[in-house]
Every structure is written in structure tokens, then in C-alpha cells.
Write a structure and sequence with these properties.
With 216 residues, the protein is α+β, with helices and mostly antiparallel strands. The protein is built from 6 helices and 7 strands. The strands form 2 sheets. A 5-stranded antiparallel beta sheet has the order 4-1-3-2-5, with helices on both faces. The chain has a two-stranded antiparallel ribbon with strand order 6-7. α1 crosses α4. The protein is globular and about 55 Å long. The two termini are 21 Å apart.
């Protein structure tokens, strides 16, 4: 499950940026999963055609489904294009459409956590859908550290800001650390509140207030 989260975060970081769309598609009526899937496929087929018509490019997207304890809905993240909200309402005729934009923070854990809500019901099934034209993120092989190294706060690579830090342990008791960093020259792409924290308090301040909830 954690590997699925990290894979999605890396895919999002590679393919989406500030101003791209986060669209929520809600089903007003209770339908079978099969009917929900058919509705989504129909919507995506028409939306892809519209994007291709407007931009000349194939739409890149990631889509996550959620229905555990809530009304069935999809979270669709896609590249920005000349958007008409009324067009989305015309294409999605089964309920409500909500549109937001990504704020530029490359920590996409907020979306990855949607994948973990239905691990029991969806066991063995793909946790999200995506377009075939997404760029594959470049991954550096993980570095195995000695156990005593985990007691220290890790340093950001030279020329990078630390944005998020996770410190936890597996069920077997093995500790692990995970950081999300961004290059110094990309600070202006971040949300203004994070830019101000980095400027005033240093590279760790952007997430210090939320670190406690991860058991650090």
C-alpha cells in the first residue's frame, strides 16, 4: 500500500504542476461499480476528445475512485486546458462537478491517501487509473542506512529544500524515513505561505508544524 502511495506521488510530481486541474465527479444516485465505471469511461472519452480539439494534444490524467463511507465520486487530476465549467457539467450528467487547481506544492500525499481508504474492499485491484501518455518518473535506487542513522534528522541534498518528511516503522518494527525535496531554483513555484516559511525560518519550517502527527 505504501509503495502504491509513493508510486502515485512520484507520477504526480513528474506530470503535474501549479494550475493543473483537480476535478471531483460525484454520482448523485447509487449505482453499481460497473455502471460507475461506464459513466467515467464515457466522460473521459468525451473530455479527451474536447482537449484534443482545443490543444492538439492528448490529455494526461490520473483518476482515483472513492466510495467508502461517502457518496461515490472520482478525483481527476489533469493538465490545464481552456476549461469551461459548463462543458464539464454537460459531459458529466450523473451528478455534481467541482473544479479546483493544484497549488504548486509537489507533496501529493493528499491524493495518495485516497488510495489507502479502500484497501480491504479493493484488495488485489489496481488502485487508480491513468492515461497512457504520462511520463515515467526517474527513480534513484533507495539507500539502505544503518539503524543508528535514523535517529538523526536527515539532511536535504545540496541545492534542495525539504518540504515533507515521514518517519515511521513497518509492522515488523523496521524504521524508515522518506523526504520530499524541491530544488532551490523552484521555490517561486511553491504556494506563497510555504515560500514565506522557507524564507523566514529555514528549509525545515515548511512542514515542522505537521511532523508530530507522523510520530517523529
Amino acid at each position: 500500500m505504501r509503495n502504491a502511495q509513493l508510486k502515485l506521488i512520484r507520477t504526480m510530481c513528474e506530470n503535474f504542476t501549479r494550475g493543473d486541474y483537480h476535478i471531483t465527479l460525484t454520482h448523485e444516485k447509487l449505482l453499481s461499480r460497473e455502471d460507475q465505471k461506464k459513466n467515467l469511461e464515457k466522460f473521459l472519452r468525451k473530455l479527451r476528445a474536447e482537449v484534443k480539439k482545443q490543444t492538439g494534444r492528448e490529455m494526461r490524467y490520473v483518476c482515483v475512485r472513492e466510495d467508502r463511507g461517502v457518496r461515490p465520486h472520482y478525483h481527476l487530476v489533469c493538465e490545464k486546458f481552456p476549461l469551461r465549467v459548463d462543458l464539464l457539467a454537460e459531459l458529466w450528467t450523473w451528478g455534481r462537478v467541482d473544479v479546483g487547481t493544484l497549488d504548486g506544492n509537489p507533496d501529493y500525499g493528499w491524493l495518495a491517501r485516497y488510495l489507502t481508504k479502500q484497501e480491504d474492499q479493493d484488495k488485489g485491484k489496481k488502485r487508480w487509473s491513468q492515461s497512457k501518455n504520462l511520463r515515467k518518473p526517474y527513480e534513484v535506487p533507495p539507500k539502505i542506512l544503518k539503524r543508528k542513522s535514523l535517529a538523526q534528522k536527515p539532511k536535504a541534498p545540496k541545492g534542495y529544500y525539504v518540504l515533507s518528511y515521514y518517519h515511521n516503522a513497518t509492522a515488523a518494527g523496521y524504521e524508515w524515513q522518506y523526504m520530499i525535496c524541491i530544488r532551490l531554483d523552484r521555490k517561486q513555484e511553491l504556494p506563497l505561505d510555504i515560500q514565506m516559511q522557507l524564507e523566514e525560518e529555514g528549509v525545515w519550517s515548511a512542514y515542522e508544524s505537521s511532523v508530530a502527527q507522523f510520530g517523529l
